[in-house]
């Protein structure tokens, strides 16, 4: 269920709106994510089955543990299609959820996914710097790949702490580190150039997506560069959360070799026709990513600086209410 005052999605932005978005990051986020809402799960291989349930719960456990499961109420900030919240609900981490996003199209997609899964979820179109819920509303606030889209991250942390109940926890995952984002983008750009040029060859022509689709992907990528506002140093991100008033703050990083493989794979998948991506290919990509993630977690995380890894996750707690003297 959404609020009746929430704006409607706008998946077909005009050229004038797109041009204006280059100077307005929030408008860019709305247009880009409304545009992507209908195909976002397919683009990022998002599912609501055991594969992504295990991924979401493992990520949550890595940064925040499992001592307080299940949380009675939780809100996902910048929910997109609901990937993190809905899979955590299915994994027993959360009982009841709320989705919020700046994009009306994403909120509608998340609520459709929740309804299809039979989950108890409501939704609001929301600016992370002005969350439309009262003080002390939730036991948990979560987000996945959202902080790097928010202009004022410290203001968003303050709002998160406001809507958390005293002693409530936040968990944000899937944020790009400064170094990780640099090598991931370079790998993606090179793989896109290589794939789109190789598929011009007659022998590989059947692997080439129609030029119209490739052009649209390029336009989306150009706008994506506008909506991705930040990369993070883990220590600086911790200081930002502490400065907003959080306690028990900790940042954890993951994915090094997994990112070096994952970004080229994702780029190839975006550049070729979907029918070429057989089950065998998808299983190879997923299993290879799992194996390399295990290497990163069990071995490389012990010897490499955390700044080298691609993803940073952060958790913290709202201070408990002061006790009466």
| Computed CA radius of gyration, to the nearest angstrom | 20 Å
Question: Which H/E pattern describes the elements?
Answer: HHHHEHEHEEHEHHHEHHE
Helix-strand makeup class: alpha/beta
The tally of helices reads 12
Instruction: Give the overall form.
Output: globular
Major β-sheet strand ordering: 3-2-1-4-5-7-6
**CA(first)-CA(last) distance:** 43 Å
Oligomer state of the chains in this structure: single chain
Record field, number of beta strands: 7
For the report, how would you describe the main beta sheet?
A: 7 strands, mixed
Q: What percent strand?
A: 15-25%
Short description:
The protein has helices spanning 15-21, 25-36, 40-43, 50-64, 83-90, 104-117, 153-163, 178-198, 211-227, 234-243, 257-271, 279-303, and strands at residues 71-77, 94-101, 121-125, 138-144, 164-176, 247-254, 311-317.
Describe this structure in words.
There is one protein chain. This protein has 325 residues and is α/β, with parallel strands linked by helices. 49% of the residues lie in helices and 17% in strands. It is built from twelve helices and seven strands. The protein has a seven-stranded mixed beta sheet, with helices on both faces. Strand 4 (138-144), helix 7 (153-163) and strand 5 (164-176) form a beta-alpha-beta unit. Helix 2 runs antiparallel to helix 9. The model has no long low-confidence stretch (mean pLDDT 90).
